[in-house]
Write the structure tokens for this entry.
Amino acid sequence: MTVSTTTAPGHRPPPAPAAQPFGLRILTGLCGVLLAALWSGLNDRVSSISLPDLRGLLGIGYDEGSWYSAVYIAAEIAAMMMATWFAVTFSFRRFAITVTLAFAVLGAVLPLVHNYPCLLMLRVAQGLFGGAMPPLLMTAALRFLPPGIKLYGMAGYALTATFGPNLAMPLAALFTDTLGWQWIYWQVIPPCLIAAAMMAWGLPQDPVRLERFYQFDWAGALTGCGGIVMLVLALEQGERLHWLHSSLICTLLFGAAVLLPLFFVNEWHHPLPFFKLQMLGRRNFSHGLLALGGFLILSMAGSALPAIFLTHVQDYRPLQIGPLALSIAIPQLLACPLAAALCNIRRLDSRIVMGCGFALLCWASYAGSHLSSVWVQDNFYLLQAIHAIGQPLAVLPILMGATGAVQPVEGPFASAMFNTTRGMSAVIGGSLIETFVTHREQFHSNVLLNSGTIKHPEMLLDSETPLALSGGLGAFAGRVHEQAITMGIADAYLLLAGLAVLLFLMLLMPKRSYPPKSHLPPQPPPAPQPAQALSAR
């Protein structure tokens, strides 16, 4: 997939690559891109879940550990903005293989490094290579798949947002408790090597287009990447540093507020931008970006909130939470293709499918708002089952409607915008949930302490056991914390239920979209006189 551009005088661009017939080789190459993109997302989540163990092994504190995760995520999202530009320039096949192998090499080196500044530099580099992989998956699906099965390629892309994050918890438990902490990093090596081999055999070789550097968007790269990095770091560190009470957070937010508007103005006028902002004028594409961002925040009700509750209230470890995460992850392997098959039915409006998905997610979030401190893992399985059905029903129509409004030459732009939105939504959602739960926990704790409970602490303890025998004030403080965080998480579930209602109401925004094999709405039967009908056209 190439983009038509004006080149510098005297530099004739090579001819566009010939269309490749879809077959076993291209299918193998696409599966390699899917595997690489899937493991890129898994690496991020596995590292974050295993961070407490890594901090102990590396001898770093909580503050240093927070930067260890933040710099990776910031570099990852910055790479998502520009990956497709470089893929078109250096050729899709070469770029995909290079970033995949570089990602694996850094995974092999990281366990050997114990110097903290060097470790941060390597994490930034790995984040850059890892962030380049998801945009390549969407670009490959839009370019190589025939119209009749293009939605199944989108289902593969959806797996990176629904299957991958939920698979990370059991994998993190496996690596930290069984195989050894080095596999937190080394787990990327086997799949990346397999993916690179599949891409080398299956993907066609495009011509290199180095002449595009004559129009490289330097201003966009500096303002866009700089603004995104500053915003991500502010969101990742904001709650820890108390937001606007920190001069660092204020500086980062101010820098993002200055750079990002400059980036958008530059992209609107640049002849070869990273983002083609004119595409936002299409209702379905704009709705797709908004709905995808909202969906990714909403999906945290199925992954983040149960894990927070079971970790802080029931003292579960990742090994014990793993089966609960798998209850969402494994069904996605069947649910995503089935959702794609539903969207491929021409007579079925995909907005109905999307509405059913958001309704199910709203139901699951509202049911989660009835959380109590006696809940254990088994109480979440029904909610997880609803999420396992609702998530693919919601996300596949979003991708179908948005990509249906994209012309073939606009694929790299759409992929860059979608994946940057996806990465930023995950950061915003994580920051929102962390901040909201923390503040609601403090609110409920104050209410409990200022109510009659402080005069009768035995209300939170075993009514038949004297306060002294129950652990005294330490036990009382623990029960207050337990009840406060439970109510804070229940409030977060209710907040996400409200978001699901908003996303449901947003179904009024997009136009009806049809499966890729039939872009036009149903036509009336042909007229009795074909010649006249042909001349009328």
